[in-house]
Amino acid sequence: MKRRIVVGALALLGLAATGATAQTYPNKPITMIVPFAAGGPTDVIARIVGEHMSRTLGQQIVVENVAGAGGTTGITRGARATPDGYTIMMGHMGTHGAAPALYPNLRYDPTKDFEPIGMAAGTPILIVSKKDFPATDLKSFIAVLKERGDKLNEAHAGVGSVSHTTCTMFMSQIGAKSTRVAYRGTGPALNDLVAGQVDFGCDQIVNLVQQVNAGAIKAYAIATPERSPALPNVPTTKEAGLPDYQVSAWNAVFAPKGTPKDIVARLNDALSKAIDDEATAKRLLDLGGVLPTKAERSGEWLGQFVASEVARWTPVLKAAGVKAE
Ligand code: MLT
To answer: What was the pLDDT predicted at 263?
Structure first.
């Protein structure tokens, strides 16, 4: 009898601690790890949603850029952080979809080592080049790549990143090779594309709208069934003659496994409120982001989606013969 009372008391203490934690959470700033360099799409989306989440939570969300290895360095750090709600991370289709196929020694499992918080934004992929690339449309661009792609520099954000994964798919589909140049993010990669230091890439729309509209780079096609309202003059890959190249990326918030459920719920609520906020939504939409529907907002939905993304990308990348290590 006595033992049962002790066990009961300990359980109540545990519940109380969790409850108290959630009630006082957050009582200090929250770190959001962005696994790429500042200024790229992952960083931009993190800062946009993080700003409004800070208002809801009453504590600053501080972005920490931890780049390297296609985003897996930062996500590994996030997965190993203390699961107390004070470290979260912005992952995406690369870090939580493609990475297992490319990194045999990956130090996290996207389907097991996280508490999925919620989807932040879908990000259609565009095929882009420096502004003076000798092509006027997707067909002539592909013709140049097939003729001398191995002499052309393709900028990406590291093996397993969205830019790397989606251009792997593109080059595999058109049967061409390139000289691949890795950056710590497509923010810095875009600077070199604008400067004409590299020739082309596949990147998320939220990184490209401003430079495409300024004529600083050329966009040949967007790899979605419909054109983007943010770039209405960019044809779809179907219109441009490569209908099979259909790919969109996504960016989503995760916490380390073991983060208390009440805290996960607070973070999910803050993210959902950010997406519902008119000004925040407009910033994402103006950059070509696609907002998650209500049904796509839960952590449970994100967990199932991540599992499907890992299952989707693994055969595609193995077929393309890509390996990071
Ligand atoms: C990627 O290619 O995975 C991202 O665009 C990298 C970034 O956000 O800089």
So the answer is: 98
